[in-house]
Amino acid sequence: MGFPPNAQAQIQANLAPTTGAIAVGQPAGGGTATTGSRSDHVHAFPAAVGASSASRRGDVAADGTSTASARADHKHGREPVDGDLVTLGQETFSRRWATGSAAPASGTLQLAYFTARKAETEAFAWIYSSTTPAIGLTYAGIGLYAVDGTGNLTLLGSFVGTGMLGAASTQYKQALTVQSGQSLALTEGNRYALGVLQVGTTPANLAAAPATAAPAVAPILAGTVTGQAALPTAVAAGSVTAGGAAPFGIVSPT
Length: 254
Description:
Elements: H1 7-15, E1 90-91, E2 100-102, E3 109-115, E4 120-121, E5 124-128, E6 135-147, E7 153-160, E8 171-175, E9 177-178, E10 185-186, E11 191-202, E12 206-209, E13 222-225, E14 234-235, E15 241-242, E16 246-247, E17 249-252
Antiparallel strand pairs: 1-17, 2-12, 3-11, 3-13, 4-10, 5-8, 5-17, 6-7, 6-11, 7-9, 7-14, 12-16, 13-15
């Protein structure tokens, strides 16, 4: 018994997809047709990842708009990481710049601003005294602050202890206590500030970067807040005087 004249055409019609091209990012679908191979079925297709052909420093990730899918696990080449950056945690600025000394007045919060270069949950802060040790401190504190888009500061965590900074040219690594309702999880690309406050007879000099030109040009690199008896939990942008030497410091997870 032979096939009907239109058998081949009927089989092709039953098997041919009717949905056209598969769209980038389209999910799988079982279809509703009752033919042997459902003519409206859809195969899953990987979502587009990094559809742009090149990236540059500062680019924001985007899926792109191309209808051709890139391989989901592809990578773009990027600039090499500075091999002199600290491997544990992240610093307020490169150690190469810590060639100066900050001499804060008693009751003045001295701030060094930085942009987080990696997402990381911190637990410790490191600061360094310079040539003059502290004498007669009644309060000494280190605070890690988040900086919002308008320059306001919010305390994320701190260490307070009067025994700190009593020796010259010494590293002080202190455990941070998380501020109530806050987190020490830093977000890559966000702005933060590490602040040091000393109250007493003679505050210690701190290893720092020298004062820079154009101190008020955004984003500011260093600033001071006067008249403080303890680390403030919040600082309005207008209360910060931009400029001065920026104390060198490190925040780290261990």
